[in-house]
Design a protein that fits this description.
326 residues; mainly alpha; 75% helix; globular
């Protein structure tokens, strides 16, 4: 069951019934995409930021943060974050609200980036669509490599010590004790707590949502107006440069894995090497212009550049690996 199905039905209703757009036309696809993703990401921002406000209040996040930072977990914290990304049905932009919640809860930056990389890169669609399209061998290798890329990417970012490049307002999380100290009370009434949770969550949502609209708008235009034949023309080459070219072509684009996997299957069927097609697909679902615009609101360019650089390098390694073994 697609939990976002009702949003898609509403987007279809507005686009094709109320606005009278032609299905599968350039403008029809762009407008439908914009309505769907704006509503979906907006709702995720509101819900996740509210839940994280409650979590910050009741859950001993300071202790959890200290445990994750001070104890030697031998990579298990990065693995858990990457596995959480696998089971969450989010695209690159949709995973940002949860990423913001993790950062605000004081979870180490590298662990949160392991989630941010894995969530769109290796998700539930790769588990149930890949076996039917490319076989179990490709599915297993892809998931192992994808999780490894997410873990290494998060680890490198953590070792670079880039917490100073996160916008300070995201790090001002408040536990129950802090809120009570500020209000001079032992406990807050339920009504006031609900209002506090709402205000705390909406402060982040209001700051981020304008960038969501702008980013999704750009993504919608790319989604509707970039022809697949143009992409196919430049990816059919079997030279060494095809993998970085596929990654660079895919990086500005924006789509979720469910919609792009059939395109990838079509490219492979027309002679595009599997590793090249994978580089193209993973670049689309993991990094994009809309994602960068939203992330720029919560982090400085140095951290954003490190994230994109590490992720792009991992994607190209995946492409070369698949081209060499399959």
């Amino acid at each position: 069951m697609d939990i976002f199905g009702p949003i898609q039905l509403f987007a279809d209703l507005v686009t094709y019934k109320w606005l009278g757009m032609v299905p599968h036309s350039y403008w029809g696809d762009a407008i439908n995409f914009f309505i769907y993703d704006t509503i979906k990401i907006g709702l995720l921002l509101v819900v996740i930021n509210y839940v994280m406000a409650v979590t910050r209040y009741y859950f001993p996040v300071e202790k959890v943060r200290n445990i994750l930072i001070k104890r030697r977990w031998f990579g298990l914290d990065y693995l858990f974050a990457a596995l959480l990304g696998v089971v969450t049905p989010f695209c690159s932009c949709s995973s940002i609200p949860l990423f913001i919640g993790f950062v605000g809860a004081g979870i180490p930056l590298g662990v949160t980036f392991a989630f941010l990389i894995a969530s769109p890169l290796v998700n539930e669609s790769s588990l149930y669509l890949f076996p039917a399209m490319f076989g179990m061998k490709v599915t297993i290798i892809y998931n192992i490599v994808g999780i490894t890329i997410a873990m290494i990417g998060g680890y490198v970012i953590q070792k670079l010590g880039m917490e100073r490049f996160v916008k300070p307002e995201l790090l001002k999380f408040k536990s129950r004790s802090k809120v009570q100290q500020e209000n001079g009370e032992v406990s807050l009434p339920i009504k006031e707590l609900a209002g506090y949770f709402w205000d705390d969550g909406m402060n982040i949502t209001r700051n981020i949502f304008p960038y969501v609209i702008l980013g999704v708008g750009i993504g919608a235009l790319i989604h509707g107006f970039v022809p697949a034949t143009l992409i196919e023309k430049y990816l059919s080459s079997k030279t060494w440069s095809s993998v970085p070219l596929a990654t660079l072509i895919g990086a500005p684009l924006y789509a979720n894995s469910v919609s792009i996997i059939p395109v990838m299957e079509a490219l492979v069927g027309k002679g595009v090497p599997l590793g090249t097609a994978l580089s193209f697909m993973t670049a689309i679902v993991t990094i994009s212009i809309p994602e960068s615009m939203i992330l720029k609101k919560v982090m400085r360019w140095q951290l954003l550049a490190a994230f994109f650089g590490i992720t792009i390098a991992g994607i190209m390694v995946m492409g070369y690996l698949f081209n060499s073994i399959l």
